[in-house]
Amino acid sequence: MSSDDLDRFDHAILRIMAADGRISVTNLARQIGLSKSPTQARLRRLEATGVISGYRAMIDPIRLGLDHVSFVEVRLSDTREAALAEFNAAVRRIPEIEQVHLIAGNFDYLMKIRNRNMNDYRQMLADRISTLPHVAGTSTYVAMQAVKENAAEDTL
User: Fold this and answer.
1) What is the rounded distance in angstroms from the CA atom of residue 109 to the CA atom of residue 115?
2) What is the pTM of this model?
3) Strand (E) positions, 18-148?
4) What's the CA dihedral at 146, 148, 151, 153 to 10 degrees?
5) What does pLDDT average to over the chain?
6) 46/2 Cα distance (integer angstroms)
7) Residues 6 or more apart whose Cβ sits within 8 Å of residue 68
8) Are the beta carbons of 104 and 153 closer than 8 angstroms?
């Protein structure tokens, strides 16, 4: 299913669900202007086709003391498919790494890392990031403030 297959009701469902995934089907139906049965059918279709990929609790990392955010550029010594696959598998095993993106540019990957403080990050960089497969070098940028995060609902 692509965005071309979605009508205004589907987009409304996605926008509302992105903001409040615990909304009842009755309230959702009322907000989008359909009755409960067609709203529920649309919701099931969006789930079945993978447009809605799941539901989860949004946990505030700052309240857990994880307010140090770093963005790390990673350059690899080898960018053949096998090396990329090995690196990808290794970063998936490190929970402090929140996001990893393969980049077209002057470096290979951009990672978002969350820790308690600079000392924890420095230790992680030395012991875990620098020892990842095929890492040739890194550059770190420390975030001072999050201006906008979790903006998926803004694009719907």
Assistant:
1) 19
2) 0.79
3) 68-76, 97-102, 109-115, 135-142
4) 120
5) 93
6) 11
7) 114, 115, 116, 117, 118, 120, 121, 142
8) no
